[in-house]
Amino acid sequence: MLLYQSPKFALHDTKSHPESVARIVQVNAMLKSSGWTERCKSPAWEPATQQQCTRIHPDSYLEALQDWCEHDAGRVEVDTVVSKGSWTAATLGAGAVCDAVQRVVKGEDTTAFCAIRPPGHHALSSAPMGFCLLNNVAIGAQYARTLGLNKVLIVDWDVHHGNGTQASFWEDPNVGFVSIHRFPFYPGTGKADETGGGQAIGTKVNIPVAAGIPAGEFLKRLYDASEKLANEMQPDLILLSAGFDAHRNDPVGGLTLEAEHYEQAGEWISNFAKSHCGGKLVSLLEGGYHLQHMPECVDAHLRGIESATRK
Ligand SMILES: [Zn+2]
User: Ligand 1 centre from 181 Cα, in Å?
Assistant: First the structure.
């Protein structure tokens, strides 16, 4: 497994916000103490280029974002803040996903995990939203296609709907999207009848679930819907928006998963990638706001992926 981690993600200084510097400090500490840093290959990588970002975000938005960061603008959207270092962190995060995609597509390794922040799946093409500045997974999916891949499937198990990702590919039949999320809940989208537009109808699959859903049922619904869409579209690569805010103790999410479920889900998605696209899987951190349980869930997720790739 390739591992992308950097202390530079702490440059995105959100002060007393739930999407805090402490999240990545704790994740990086876990990656070291659990031996992932030593066991995994950690390539050096560059921030996402303008060209990589503009496949999702217009130049006007990228310029505005850069300008906000230079001016240490603070709150730029109801839930989203930027600091002077946010541009560096955001482009480094999107760049990690692109670098991981490139190495996995080339066959250097089959799986990668990007321990990045800020998260990305709510970011719209021309606006920040819900703690997100650049849509990391969407930028990665577009980059994969420049490498000759025809079809990419994005799975999103963050407790929130990946509205920005869905909007990026709404009419694109070659990027599939499966999102399971609490509903009704922020950001308000992700109803079951949102299935894509034009040529892409049926390539977006939304699984809205109630707050009390048992963890086993949550996972079964995710697995079944993902298998169905993958059988239909036959993807060349799986990208995973791995949020950990569906954990029982998450201060934001309100669902019931525990670390063991993220281990099972990690094993499942690794086997899922093996059966549909030669094991090619790039997982990237989205939400997860409990400072102790979120890193435990990341650890469990990586153990699940590792145990499946060993078999
Ligand atoms: Zn979330």
Answer: 9
